[in-house]
Amino acid sequence: MDSDLTLDFIIIIVLIIANGLFSMTELAIVNAKKRRLEEMGEAGNERAKKAFELAENPNNMFSTIQIGITLVGILTGLYSGATFSAPLEEFLVAHVPSIESYATSLSSFIIVAIITYLSLVIGELVPKRLALNSPESIAVVVAKPIYWLSVALKPIVSFLGVSTEFLLKLLGVTIKEEAPVTESEINKMLTEGVAMGAYEEEEPILVENIFHLADMDASDVMTPRTQLKWIDLNASEDEIMEVLKTANHYRIPVGEDSLDELQGMINVTDVMVECLQGESPLHHVIRSCMTEPLLVPESISLMKLLNTLRNEGVHETIVLDEYGGFSGLVTLHDIMEEIVGLMPSGEDERQEEENRIIERGDGTWLVDGLLNIDEFKEFFHIDKELPREEDDLYKTLGGLMNLLFGRIPRETDKTYWEGYTFEIVDMDNTRIDKILVSYVEPVVEQTEE
What we know:
By secondary structure, the chain is an alpha+beta fold. The protein has 18 helices and twelve strands. The chain has four domains: about 1-170, no CATH class; about 185-215, no CATH class; about 220-345, CBS-domain; about 355-440, Uridine Diphospho-n-acetylenolpyruvylglucosamine Reductase, domain 3 (2-Layer Sandwich), CATH 3.30.465.
């Protein structure tokens, strides 16, 4: 009799372990990284190939596992109740006669409690913890057995699949296809990779910046026409030579009286070499070195502009406004800075970038009017929307000042917003050059009730 009970107990444990294997298989394949399985398969691991196939099309696997778990659960419940309840009842009556009247119910309750405990620990919690700890390794091991089991149960699985779809249609439920991976999911994955040491700390920042390119347009990074050095074909040779010596780009535009009368682009180095090697007049050299510029609208996204520059094989482009007027210049260097951060091309540019925001000893800041509005908000930790920011009416702090004043301001003019005081310190003709920024925490008035 004891040997029969031992065998029965072993059968129950085997059924519970089978339930655990089904649970572990399901969670392992669902949580396994498909890319990792694909790489292992490409390296010649046949089991990984099968695991990847199951991960790509898991519906049959889910149905097979559900059938297995359901059958195992039913068998475990029936077998344990029928096998152990009677012996346990006899044991209880023999040792505690006073409980004879309710020994049947008590023995059933004890058997159910023990089987439930073993099923939860051995059949669910431990297998699932193992699956979450090493999903790819376990998926590779269990892939082939679960595949052949799904083949054997295919008629039942197909019938269940048809029944499920029919019921969902009756309920008016539409099955959604798997959503593509989102930017936030990729960023989260990279952040987790940094925590595990799989990636460098800078990599998530670079990827996030690349995604950000699609949200920016050419006008966000261009050097505006007011800040450009350019050649006027009607200027004297001395004036042209001065521009060549002080140019802030190695390729600069050429116009006639105005940049709106754009004639082309020149390479400053090529012009200087031609001047040193020949005796041709400077104006003639300029015209001979001119090339046709690439023209793009202000509204073009940086991602599309990057592709355009690569396809055209150029490093810079002229940006036109909606009326066809010259708006500014964008270089490949400008776009790369949005990905990797500030890359000053020389000491002068480095100094200029560092002087965009200068903190003074009295707790105020001297800010360049051309400072990008996003950089301004980031530096001053401003989370709320600026006035009319959603309308995209300005790109720089100077543009915000024009909006707040409602006119072109004059030096010493002041305006206020949310505790910030903006004082115009310097004007370059009609352009705001320097702004003095100070901040005082707004006082919240409390009303007595």
